[in-house]
Amino acid sequence: MAVRRKKSEEVEAPKPKDPALIGKEVMALVNSMMGERRIKDETVFLALESAIQLAALRHFGVEEGVYCAIDRSTGVITARYGEQELSPETLGRIAAQSAKQVMIQKFREAESDTVFSEYSAKKGDLVQGSVTRVDAGTAIVSLGKTESLLPRSEQIPGESFHPSDRVKAVVYEVKKNGNRVKVVLSRAHPDFVKSLFDEEIPEIADRTIDIRAIAREAGYRTKLAVSSIDMKVDCVGACVGIRGSRIKNIIEELNGERIDIVRWNDSLQVLIPNALQPAAISDVFTYPRLGRAIVLVEEDQLSLAIGRRGQNVRLASKLVGLDLEIMTADELGISLERAERWFGQLPHSSEEIIQSLVGEGFLSYNDIASIDGQTLTEFTSLTLEQGEEVVAYAEDYSDTMEDAVREEQRQADEAAEESRRAAAQAEADEAAAAMAEANREADAVSEAEGGESAPVAEGSEATGTDGEVASEPSEETSSVGDIAAESSDSPAASEETTVTNETTAAADSGETA
Question: Which domains, from first to last, does the chain contain?
Answer without folding.
Answer: 7-119 (3.30.1480.10), 123-188 (2.40.50.140), 192-248+259-264 (3.30.300.20), 266-327 (3.30.300.20), 337-426 (no CATH)
